[in-house]
Amino acid sequence: MTLTTNKHYHPSLQFVIFIAITIGVIGVGYLIGSAAVIAIYGVDALMDIARLNLANPVTANALWLLQIVSTTIPIIAASFIFAIWVMKDPQQYIRPSFKFPPLLWVIVFCVMVISTPLIECLSNFNQKMVLPHFLDGLQRWMRETENQAEKLTAVLLQMKTISSMIFKLLVVGLLTAIVEEFMFRGCIQTIFTKWTNNAHAAVWITAALFSAFHMEFFGFLPRMFLGVLFGYFVVWSGSVWPAVWAHFINNGTAVIVSYLYQNKMIKVNPDDQHIFNYGSYLFSLIIVLFLLYLYRIIATGKQKMPIL
């Protein structure tokens, strides 16, 4: 059976429809997740999550269940519902094709590794940003939200065994990468590309929304930078998978480093944002720009690579 695309929807209406579907599916997911937590762990576990009382190990398991059922599954479901049943064009709104040069996998890996100093630089700059005095209340709320997010992340990334690390590598690393890239670089970036008729604007707008979605305002700039990288990976290759790979490398590295640090296998604290110096920042910027240029010419076929 072939699908007839709904091209008559204006991109602004597409965006509204997508957001409505996402909110609705997340709402249903939250109800199902809450019911599952109560059925398996009891009402107290759900109340502990609401109060951020996360000392009880049972609460951590309940939080994982709630996170997956109320957020992870609904987000990817919303993307599929929108792309397949509303727009009837999953190839354009999810971009699942693997038809791109295999060398891009390697370049993406190099970009993500070498961009680490740049991400640290942006993070340090972001942490020092101060809002005007009349916005003190907003800044306090932002800081409280950030602290709550850090507490939740710390609980979700507690790993004492190799099996727990592998589980979180698959969920936090791979599954989250797929879910968020289908949503942002698949559906949302495609909508804004059509809305603005400008791929660059779509990449940057989507990256800003991607960063805001995580509700970690003092990490807004580094996450937006990552969103920009992911966005151009998709624009130039025509596929969501290079962005998924990049996202997995970012999240997966955080999981593995956290596991190694928690189990005293390395001394480098993953939360330490003062590892590199200004020379490293400049070197990182230059090499990342070169790699992005290389990625673009290979992905778009503007230069054929020599046969070795």
Write up what this structure looks like:
This protein is an all-alpha fold and 308 residues long. It has 12 helices and no strands. α2 crosses α3, α8 crosses α9 and α9 crosses α10. The protein starts with 10 loop residues before the first helix and ends in a 9-residue tail after the last helix. 34% of the residues are buried. The C terminus is likely disordered.
Task: Tag the structure with descriptive keywords.
308 residues, mainly alpha, disordered C terminus
- Can you summarize the main beta sheet? none
The string of secondary-structure elements, in order, is HHHHHHHHHHHH
Count of DSSP-assigned helices: 12
Q: Work out the radius of gyration.
A: 20 Å
The shape, in one word, is globular
Query: Which structural category do the helix and sheet elements fall into?
Result: mainly alpha
Number of strands: 0
Q: What is the first-to-last residue Cα distance?
A: 43 Å
> What proportion of the residues form beta strands (DSSP E)?
under 5%
The whole-number mean of residue pLDDT values reads 91
Name the assembly state.
single chain
Sequence stretches where pLDDT stays below 50 over 5 or more residues: 304-308
What percent of residues adopt helix (DSSP H or I)? over 70%
